[in-house]
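G.,

No rush on this.
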Amino acid sequence: MDLNQLKSFVTVAETANLTKASELLFLSQPAVSAQLKALEAELGVILFNRTARGMTLTVAGQVLRQDAVHALGAAKHIFSRAQIFREGLSGECCIGTISEPVILRLSELLSELMRTNSNLSMRLSQSVSGVVVDQILEGKLHGGFVIGEIEERRIATIPVRPITLRIVAPYEWKERIITADWEDIAQLPWISMSPKCSFNKITAAMFNRHGLRPNSFIAIDEEATLRKLVASGIGLALMREDMALDAEAKKEVAIWPKGLETKQLNFIYLQTDWDTPLIQALCKSVRTVWKLAT
């Protein structure tokens, strides 16, 4: 069985006339007739009743016609997708970003996408993890980066790297926190991230394990601002280890020895979009840049 046989079958079924079908298919009548006989022989059923008035479908033909239509549609879909992969995608690709571009390897990801899909335009939306999840569910983003676990079942994840987080205080508080326990740390003033930020959720979980709640009095939504506020002596915060180590080396913050948490940086997308060419291209580029197994 091949697609030409199915196409001839469907066309004859639609026209009920071998001559008209041959004209539409740009084939001779003997060629179309031969394709039908070959298909019937392979299937082991008679598809048409051949009468003086034309070609009418048998009961088997009526049932199998729908299957043939679906098969031709699926084949067309495959060829269309293959063409996209050959010639590259076009249109706009919307990616949600968090934190700093270097942590996400954003420049490498965009370069890889542009290399393989030169007609694709990019739009980046900077926010926090919770907002990225919301916007993907709302169809405003094709994919994005988040830190931490995703509880939403409609979201698919690609883990790309672990992110270590540390509790930091103003550098001037170094001696004050060096021997502090969790209860002491919880009572100190805290700078928290916005409720949609994964840092806020992670901080709460860390203290919950000890039956405590941090004394949060200010909420922000930018890591750069977080670093400045801690450095200025406002309070403690949860910070990426790479940023914390850099800030400590510059005597801006002091790292509390006991406060350490490791979470996963994930690239996420809508589960139902997996088989779309754009999401497949995005996932392939992410795996290439992060050298992940396919």
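When you get to it, here's the other one too:
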Amino acid sequence: MSRTQVILHVDMDAFYASVEMARRPELRDVPMYVGGAERGVVLSANYPARAYGIEGGMPATRARRLCPQAVAVPPDYDTYTDVSAGVIQLLRSFTNKVEVASIDEAFCDITGAICRLGEPRTIGELLRARVADEQRIPCSVGIGPSKFIAKLASKQAKPDGLVEVPSDRITAFLHPLPVEAIWGVGPATASRLHKLGLTSIDDVAHTPKPTLQRAFGAGQGALLHDLAWGRDNRSIQATEPEHSIGAQTTFGRDTDDPRAVHGELLRMAARASSRMREAGMCGRAVSISVRFSDFTTITRTAQLPSPTDVTDEVYAQALRLYEGLHLQRARIRRVGVRIEKLVPAAEAYQQPTLDAPERGMREVELAADALIRRFGPNAVGRATLAGST
């Protein structure tokens, strides 16, 4: 018996503002927004600022009038792109069916991951914990049998929550909502629905389809009726299939300390390797990327002796690549580690050495992965990274 598809929608709450608060924790409890202080528009506002009525798309002059003490932070699009890419890489370690909707939201088909990672809610909570741990930002997750329901659920989950809508609860969840919640219903369509006396999704659902088609046309009328009953057959349109798995981090401040760089290379190697094991893959090559304070970026790649998903082996190669750059106290903004030329772990041949123990670091890391899935991302970690950020 085939299982109903399970779609997960991830929405990174107040994304630009959340990234800035991760870099500057002192902004968490004060009204702040990303955008110009006196000109331009508000791109994103934190929840203390929203309490004053400040919201995205609002002119900065109006935001200043609503809350004169609000802190305006200039946007840093490079960092936002980096964080978004990191979240998408994480999603692709759960499933290869990921559709990127925008810089701060994505859909995932996790139907095939359930046998491997647990029930949908378990997967959603693990994903939220991993995003918080790795990128230090919150996200809301909606889970449902379709993209439409999953997206509505994530909106209900805000801020920083999770809502799951199983197939047998669709109408109970959907019908009390206003017509404006229907995907594609903007102010003009909502006004026309209101003129017909239809204010809730329940009203639309119980209006005969021919009536809706006469009012809105054959296609739109049928779509409104189907969505009102939760019928949405659109599948995930996977974007940019992943042929590699990696992780990257931007330093809070540019650094020329080799120890700090080495530590982050190890952390990124551990994240990338963990994602490899979650995806059931091994890699034949390792690459690093280094971005300097002037935003120039260089990459280096090297083959591995045999396919691997073991952190120590990935880190050793990443460190060799970094040391091979022979940098002389260059100030570094970001580092990343990527594992390439992927093969299924079940098909990866690894040449054992005569003195290799029967069980090694891979078994240790698999055990650690199991603990993390059960107790969260901070359940176990490397002592060398303890206390570092």
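The radius of gyration is 24 Å. The first helix runs from residue 15 to 23.

Enjoy the weekend,
O.
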